[in-house]
Amino acid sequence: MGVLREELKSHLLNSGAVLVGFGALNDDRLPYPALPRVVSWAVKLEPESDSGWDFARAYFGADQRIAFLAEHVKAILRRYGFKAESLSELEIKGENPDTEFPDHS
After folding, report:
1. Predicted confidence band of residue 89 (pLDDT cuts 50, 70, 90)
2. Model confidence over 49-78: pLDDT tens digits?
3. Cα-only R_g, the chain
4. Sign of dihedral through CA atoms 90, 91, 95, 97?
5. For residue 34, what pLDDT is reported?
6. Rounded-to-integer distance, Cα 90 and Cα 47, Å
């Protein structure tokens, strides 16, 4: 999987990601327990000014880039014969964002 990781990392960085990581998931409460590995990435949030509207536009733009990259990664993994799903949306509960992959450190 080392060569595939390098290919994924290269594609993600060339497509707008600023950080890329890989991990293993071991929790039967996850939405896809049969998919034990995860690829994660971050994009830079770049509002044009400090106004709330510019921040909102930058946030939604970043969300679109993240969704695009999720589909891109899914396509690469499936091309290699792996099962893959993209779970990029957050469910906001109060002031704490909670992803579909909870952190059980």
Report:
1. low
2. 988 899 888 988 888 888 899 998 999 999
3. 15
4. negative
5. 74
6. 20
Output the CA torsion sign for 35, 23, 88, 94.
Answer: positive
The residue type found at 16 is: G
Q: pTM score, two decimals? A: 0.71
Reported residue count of the chain is 105
pLDDT for the residue 23: 87
Between the CA of residue 100 and those of 33, 48, 50, 79, 87, what are the distances in Å? 12, 30, 30, 25, 7
CA distance 95 to 55: 18
Burial pattern 51-83, b for ≥16 Cβ within 10 A else e, equals eeeeeeebeeebeebbeebbebbbebbeeeeee
Longest alpha-carbon distance in the chain: 45
**Bridge partners, residue 19, by sequence:** 42
Structure tokens at 75: 């396509």
Strands 37-42 and 19-24: antiparallel
